[in-house]
Amino acid sequence: MSTENKVGSIHSIWRYPVKSMMGESLDFTQIKEQGLWGDRSYALIDRADGKVVTAKNPKKWPTLFSFQAALTETLSEVDAVPSVQIKLDDGTSVTSDRPDIDAILSKALKRDVTLAVTENLKVRGVQSGSAIAHTGSSEEFWPDIEGRSMKDVVTDFNLPTGTFFDCANVHLLTTSTLAKLKQQYPQGRFEIPRFRPNMIIDTLDQEPSFAENEWVGRTVAIGEQVRLKIFKPCPRCVMTTLPQGDLPRDNGILYTAVKYNQGHVGVYATVLRGGEVRLGDSVSIER
Prior knowledge:
The protein has 3 helices and 19 strands. With 287 residues, it is mainly β. The protein has a single domain (4-286), classed as PK beta-barrel domain-like (M1 Pyruvate Kinase, Domain 3), CATH 2.40.33. The strands form 5 sheets. A 7-stranded mixed barrel has the order 1-14-13-17-16-15-19. Strands 4-3-18 form a 3-stranded antiparallel beta sheet, with no helix packed on it. Strands 5-9-10 form a 3-stranded antiparallel beta sheet, covered by helices on one side. A hairpin with a 5-residue loop joins strand 7 (84-87) and strand 8. The mean pLDDT is 93.
C-alpha cells in the first residue's frame, strides 16, 4: 500500500486551446487520458510546408504570442472539442466556426495557414471538416545561449502521433522553481506565461529549489482522483525568452535555466488516472 507525502496545492491551472497562442487561466478542469480537456486541441498548419505552426520559430512566426485562445465551453462530459474563440493581434475576436476562419488567420499572420483540430488522434481541418495533410512535425529556432545572441539555427522535431503536443500531455511547475530562478537572476521576470505550464503547484516548502526535479519517476496525486506519472524534466526553448504582453524579450531567462538547472524548468507527466482538478487541491507524491 502506497503512502503519500503532501508537497503543496494547486496554485493555478492553465489551458492552451491553440498551440503557441496565449491560453486561459481556469478555476477547475477535467483531466482525461490525453491531458487537460481541450488543451492543444487546435493548431495552425503552414500550407507552404505542412508543418505545425509554433512560436518556437519566432523569426517565421513573430506574432503568435499576440493571439489568445479560449474554448467556448468551460467543461464538457463528452470528448468532442468545442469551438475556440481567438483574439487576434489587432484586438478583434473570431470563433473557429466561421466559414472564412482560415482566410482571417492567414491575413493576420501574413502566411497561408489552416486551422486544424485533433480528435481521437486524427487531425482535420476546421473549415473543411475533413482529414488534413500535414507532416506531423514542427520546427525550433535555437538561440546562442552562451553569447546571449540569436543564431539562425532551425531544426525540425516530430510531434506525438495525432496530437499537437511537443512531447507530453501534462506539464507541471512549482513556485519553488520560479523562486529559485529568480534568486539566481533577480532582474529577470520569471512569470508563469513564459513557461506555459498546465498547473502551478504552490509548494509547502518555501525555500527556493528545483523541487520537482526529485519527482521524476514518481506518481503525483492531485486531490482524490487524479494521478500523474512524472517521467522527465521539461527542457526549455527560445519561447521562454520572447516578449508577450508586458513581458520583455529576455535571453537571460533561458540562460539562467541552462546555467543552474541544465535548461529544465518544470516536469512532464502522463495521466494514470483522470478526474477533476480545482484550485487549492492538495498535491502529494506517492511513495
